[in-house]
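Hey, resending since the last one bounced:
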Amino acid sequence: MINFYKVEDKWAKIVKNSTIAVWLMVPFPRKLGKVEASSIQTESVTPVNKKKGTPAYHPAQVRETAFDRPRDWLGNRFIYAVISSRATGLSLGVNINPDKKCNFDCSYCEVDRRIPSREHKLDVEVLAAELRKTIAFIQSGKLAELPSYRTLPSELLRLRQVALSGDGEPTLATNFMEAVQAVVRVRALGGFFKLVLYTNGTGLDHPNVQRGLELLTKSDEIWIKLDGGSQSFVDKVNRPDVPLEKILSNILLVGRIRPVVIQSLFPSIHGEEPPFEEIREYALRLKELKAGGAQISMVQIYSAARPGINSEWGHLPLRVLSQIAQTVRQTAGLRAEVF
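The structure tokens again:
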């Protein structure tokens, strides 16, 4: 079965078989041609306010898809694999925070902090050994032989990036710089790969983190979280222990030195989309960052892809995400893509 969704200026074609759903991006035709209207589908909605016509978007059911799959640890303690839409394929994650330490308590977070951590600190030597072993495993083609990967196209199994991420905020780790050094050393000895730091931005001004960032090349990237434009909305979605002003200040700090990617996750909130006023405030913050000298190469607009701990926070339809991206383009004049 093939379903089509109009997403921005592309068609996302979902090819379904008995075990997976693979997303393939193909150029969007200028005209629909012979495509029947019935083949263009959207997320199902149910009106909850007949007077205002406000739709309620139900959280998406857990679905097995090629992109944004659950982590596969492959027998490792600190290195895991995931097929990521934003990485456009295979990403190896480095769990910098096995202790689950984070200064955000995001409402959509998939990490269950009620369960005690198996590890209390990242062992850098083990990290390096696991990374070398896992990369060699991928390069040998053995990953494609595992049941979870057999039906995936070979293009999705190419290593796209190694991500400093995991169960918490990477920049809070006391051995952050040592972890970056270890990954960079593995790269120097075993072949180039892109290194990406996933961060909420709060620790980017720490001296230890600044020293670690100096080890990144121009090909590496820093993806900084920004899920809202007002303190009240950020408090509701991210529940941080630092003010929004601090996050924006750190985006400016790094963005004035090198290009950064803004990663923005917008969930449905109790079955409803975020208010337009909040989206406009968010776009205005991006505009201010750009005007202040921050080099923002892309704004990633996406929604909750994996089941979170709180069931009242779910996945937004592509239509809504597209509207958010368009608001960013029109208001801030930045490149924005939906994932």
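The domain at 79-338 is CATH 3.20.20.70 (TIM Barrel).

Sorry for the duplicate.
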